[in-house]
């Protein structure tokens, strides 16, 4: 009995040991499981936190997208409203203009951008002489961009038609350091001239800038020039400007010349010429590149300018203004150009006409040209060897020294003509060109 009792106690001890061991293992397993659960819960919380952060970010981005979409929608609506407004104004303006006349001499377009005060001065100068020829010369303002002051100013005039060029395409300059403005100007000119020649079907267009005043005979001058432009296909454009038109270099308001150099600053172009120019219109500097496309064609220019450029501040940053533009003489004489016989300007006649003037001039040689001229009666002929020599002579008198692509400003067949403080004409002649002399 004692033995059985002792064995039972041993069995109980083993059972107790086994139970304790099992409990210890179970506790250890539970602890490990609890740790894993804690790690899992922590990971889940982290994922939840990250997910909430991402949801918040997505929500914020969606809000930004919605705002941007709304902004784009409003801009598109504004652009559409502007286009509709411009189309209505153009239809109304052009319709009323064509009700008055079937065949205008030329449309007059003022190229504008962001100078409302300059534009007002230009428009007022035009309308000072426009009332009697309104049916012959319908006036347009073409604005590049959306400057509200310019648009408001242009639309405040009932006598003109407003056009707006909206160009949001980025500009890629061809060379480093180039001004984007010249690319924008080229695009605007092409758009405006396409509109006037092809949409409104004008036969001729006079191009002005928003910083110009005109002379009393401006419209008569261009009406007479229109006949030349139609009859002589060697004339690319009629210009109202003389680069060497400063007060001390001009005298005769009736004198007109042919030139191989494009004068610009108030010029009339015909539709056939634009048909050739438009497809080849360059990305920038069109009035320099145009010369290459029509190197065999010439321009008519006056001795005394029919436009005056007061734009000291603009895309060219005031280049040459004080020295060459500010002293320009604007014609103040009323001339009846309809009574003038301008056939001498036709290509077949002008060569001999000009050559005779050059031949009749007295030859004069260096040095001290300015001093020698004062002792000579009548016109004077001075020869130059090359561009450097020309620049030295031009500097003595104060005329434009600049050349473009081998051509001095105002030159015809290499000859530059101007007056010097009297009615005497001075002819600067290229020694290489013997045909004229």
What does this structure look like?
The chain is α/β, with parallel strands linked by helices. It has three domains: 1-76; 101-345, Spore Coat Polysaccharide Biosynthesis Protein SpsA, Chain A (Alpha-Beta Complex), CATH 3.90.550.10; 354-430, 2,3-Dihydroxybiphenyl 1,2-Dioxygenase, domain 1, CATH 3.10.180.20. The protein contains eleven helices and 16 strands. An eight-stranded mixed sheet has the order 3-2-1-4-8-6-9-7, with helices on both faces. α10 (369-373) links the parallel β11 (362-364) and β12 (380-384). It is elongated. The N and C termini lie far apart (160 Å).
Which labels suit this protein?
437 residues; alpha/beta; 46% helix; 3 domains; Spore Coat Polysaccharide Biosynthesis Protein SpsA, Chain A; 2,3-Dihydroxybiphenyl 1,2-Dioxygenase, domain 1
Distance between the termini: 160 Å
Helix content: 40-55%
For the record, the count of structural domains works out to 3
Number of DSSP E strands: 16
Low-confidence stretches: none
Strand order of the largest sheet: 3-2-1-4-8-6-9-7
* Major sheet summary line: 8 strands, mixed
Which structural class should the secondary elements be placed in? alpha/beta
In the CATH hierarchy, what is the class of the largest domain? Alpha Beta
Radius of gyration from CA coordinates: 40 Å
Q: Do you know the CATH topology of the largest domain?
A: Spore Coat Polysaccharide Biosynthesis Protein SpsA, Chain A
CATH architectural name of the largest domain: Alpha-Beta Complex
The H-and-E topology, N to C, reads as HEHEHEHEEHEEEHHEEHHEHEHEEEE
CA-based shape: elongated
* Total helical elements: 11
Question: β content, as a range?
Answer: 15-25%
């Amino acid at each position: 009995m004692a033995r059985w009792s002792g064995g039972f106690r041993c069995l109980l001890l083993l059972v107790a040991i086994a139970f304790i061991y099992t409990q210890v293992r179970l506790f250890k397993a539970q602890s490990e499981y609890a740790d894993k659960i804690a790690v899992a819960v922590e990971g889940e919380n982290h994922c939840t936190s990250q997910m909430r952060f991402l949801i918040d970010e997505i929500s914020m981005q969606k809000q930004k997208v919605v705002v941007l979409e709304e902004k784009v929608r409003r801009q598109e609506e504004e652009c559409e409203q502007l286009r509709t407004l411009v189309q209505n104004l153009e239809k109304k303006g052009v319709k009323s203009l064509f009700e008055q006349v079937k065949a205008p001499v030329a449309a007059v377009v003022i190229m504008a951008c962001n100078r409302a005060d300059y534009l007002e001065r230009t428009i007022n100068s035009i309308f000072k002489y426009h009332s009697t020829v309104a049916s012959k010369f319908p006036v347009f303002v073409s604005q590049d961009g959306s400057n509200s002051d310019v648009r408001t100013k242009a639309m405040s005039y009932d006598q003109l038609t407003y056009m707006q060029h909206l160009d949001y395409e980025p500009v890629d300059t061809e060379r480093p350091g180039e001004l984007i403005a010249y690319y924008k100007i080229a695009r605007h000119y092409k758009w405006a001239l396409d509109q006037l020649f092809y949409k409104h079907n004008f036969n001729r267009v006079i191009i002005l800038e928003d910083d110009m005043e005109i002379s009393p005979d401006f419209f008569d001058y261009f009406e007479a020039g229109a006949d030349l432009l139609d009859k002589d296909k060697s004339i690319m454009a009629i210009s109202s400007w003389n680069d060497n038109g400063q007060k001390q270099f001009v005298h005769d308001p009736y004198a007109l010349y042919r030139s191989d150099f494009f004068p610009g600053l108030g010029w009339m172009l015909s539709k056939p010429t634009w048909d050739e120019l438009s497809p080849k219109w360059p990305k920038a500097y069109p009035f320099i590149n145009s010369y290459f496309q029509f190197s065999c064609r010439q321009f008519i220019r006056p001795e005394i300018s029919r436009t005056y450029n007061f734009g000291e501040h603009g895309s060219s940053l005031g280049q040459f203004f004080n020295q060459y533009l500010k002293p320009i003489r604007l014609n103040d004489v009323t001339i009846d150009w309809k009574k003038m016989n301008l056939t001498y300007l036709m290509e077949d006649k002008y060569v001999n006409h000009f050559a005779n003037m050059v031949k009749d001039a007295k030859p004069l040689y260096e040095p001290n040209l300015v001093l020698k001229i004062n002792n000579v009666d009548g016109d004077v002929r001075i020869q130059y060897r090359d561009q450097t020599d020309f620049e030295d002579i031009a500097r003595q008198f104060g005329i434009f020294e600049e050349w473009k692509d081998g051509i001095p400003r105002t030159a015809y067949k290499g000859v530059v003509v101007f007056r010097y403080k009297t009615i005497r004409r001075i002819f600067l002649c290229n020694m290489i060109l013997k045909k004229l002399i």
